[in-house]
Specification:
By secondary structure, this protein is mainly alpha-helical. The chain has helices spanning 34-45, 63-67, 83-92, 103-117, 125-131, 148-156, 158-171, 179-184, 186-197, 202-211, 214-221, 236-239, 242-250, 254-261, 297-310, 327-332, 350-358, 360-365, 374-388, 395-404, and strands at residues 22-27, 72-77, 95-100, 175-178, 415-416. It contains 20 helices and five strands. Helix 6 (148-156) packs parallel to helix 13 and helix 7 (158-171) runs parallel beside helix 20 (395-404).
């Protein structure tokens, strides 16, 4: 059993004693309020906060590691839905909660988190490489420096982090909490959430809100006081360079992700122009598609495979993107071998299917590509394809991220309840607890 984290507990009335078996996991995009919500619920239910091991793609799921956490705990972690974990969570009655926050504020918070904790906390190494500034003394109120690495992080990495919360909300297995609602109306937001988990009095909720104010968490944090930087809403409007804001407004998949999550990047100072990509002139001489997406060796291999094996190569030149029949559209389209023809979310594209059919390790990990392992393969493609194929343009995994937000958007009123799935997988009536 993990040790209890030291903080004041709430004196509960006998009538609302916390349940003997209560396990809560906040699973979301980083820097969306996960830690704050964890402290609030830990205080409300007198739960020990534990370290939750990260489920991994390439290892067999070991339920013993998680069973040892005991019958009562709360934790948070950042990973997409994975079948083996979901099966265990249903069997154990784990309450899953997902937080969302304005993507601009998430990026600002992530930037300062890297400055303060790189080297002392577990952070994605690529995020550290791209976001860590030589001058760690940057003021919290200072405009984030516009560097090539910051722009590269937004172009190539950040959208996959946003997809964690999107995928969990899309799954219907989790309660959703909007950070802004928690910030502006913490008591009413928590009441809506605790009404679904285990009823408590408003007095208990208000006591937790008071004890988990940021200044008090800072006081308890000791050497880790910089973790609780500022909180708040709308820091992106004064902290993000206009060029970064423009990327959020125009670069896929951000416009679709931001809209699906219920946010926007509307500002007056956003009329920044970018260089037009060079037009390609032929199937062998071009380095990119007409829209600027790079053509690397892998894309060329797929092109020649389609020409030689299927004998139905595209009528237009390799780099074209505007003609009705073009190779770029085909690459991002639902795989021709997909029996659902793109009707299922997320999409498995022709690029993904080509990689899957040529790699025995992927076939072993995701044998049922278009049914049981569709979502898991999507997460592999978004998180790992660009790592294993460094020249693969990020627009291809970005296209898969876009497919996640083509379904109905979440409804926060103030808490999103999803489909509320039972242990056996049937939908249950509103008011019942998910995964119980």
């Amino acid at each position: 059993m993990a040790n209890r984290t030291h903080f004041d507990t709430v004196d509960l009335e006998q009538s609302e004693a916390p349940p003997a078996n209560l396990k809560i996991l906040v699973v979301s995009t980083p820097k969306t309020g996960n830690t704050w919500l964890k402290y609030l619920l830990a205080t409300i239910y007198d739960l020990p906060m534990v370290d939750f091991p990260m489920p991994e793609f390439w290892r067999d799921f070991d339920p013993d590691r998680y069973d040892k956490l005991g019958p009562r705990w709360i934790a948070h972690q950042h990973f997409p839905p994975r079948e083996s974990f979901i099966r265990w969570a249903k069997e154990q009655g784990v309450i899953l909660i997902t937080t969302v926050r304005h993507p601009g504020d998430c990026l600002v918070s992530m930037y300062f988190y890297v400055q303060n904790f790189a080297g002392s906390a577990v952070i994605d190494p690529e995020a550290v490489r791209l976001l860590l500034s030589p001058d760690n003394g940057t003021s919290d109120l200072h405009l984030l420096p516009l560097t090539n690495n910051l722009e590269l992080y937004v172009r190539s990495k950040f959208f996959s982090s946003l997809n964690y919360s999107i995928a969990w909300l899309h799954s219907g297995l989790t309660f959703g909490v909007r950070y802004e609602d928690l910030w502006h109306s913490p008591a009413s937001t928590l009441r809506a959430l605790t009404n679904k988990i285990h009823l408590v009095s408003m007095g208990t909720i208000q006591t937790a809100v008071e004890r988990c104010q940021i200044d008090k968490l800072r006081h308890k944090a000791g050497a880790h006081v910089s973790f609780y930087r500022a909180g708040g809403v709308g820091a992106w409007t004064t902290s993000l360079p206009s060029r970064i804001i423009r990327l959020f407004q125009t670069l896929p998949p951000y416009p679709a992700q931001v809209k699906w999550l219920g946010y926007s990047f509307d500002t007056e100072d956003s009329a920044l122009q970018f260089e037009e990509p060079k037009k390609s002139t032929g199937p062998f001489s071009c380095l990119c598609f007409d829209n600027g997406v790079k053509i690397d060796r892998l894309i060329a291999q797929i092109y020649f495979y389609r020409f030689a094996v299927q004998q139905n190569h595209d009528s237009s030149r390799l780099g074209a993107t505007l003609e009705g029949d073009n190779f770029y559209t085909w690459l991002n389209a639902a795989a021709e071998s997909d029996p659902y023809s793109g009707r299922q979310i997320p999409v498995v594209t022709n690029v993904g299917a080509y990689l899957h059919q040529g790699r025995p390790d992927l076939q072993r990990a995701f044998p049922d590509l278009y049914r049981r392992h569709r979502a898991a393969f999507s997460h592999w493609f978004v998180l790992h394809a660009s790592v294993e194929y460094p020249l693969l343009d990020t627009r291809f995994p970005a296209g898969v991220c876009e497919s996640w937000v083509k379904g109905p958007a979440p409804n926060f009123s103030p808490v999103h309840y999803g489909a509320e799935i039972t242990r056996k997988g049937e939908a249950i009536a509103p008011g019942k607890t998910a995964l119980r």
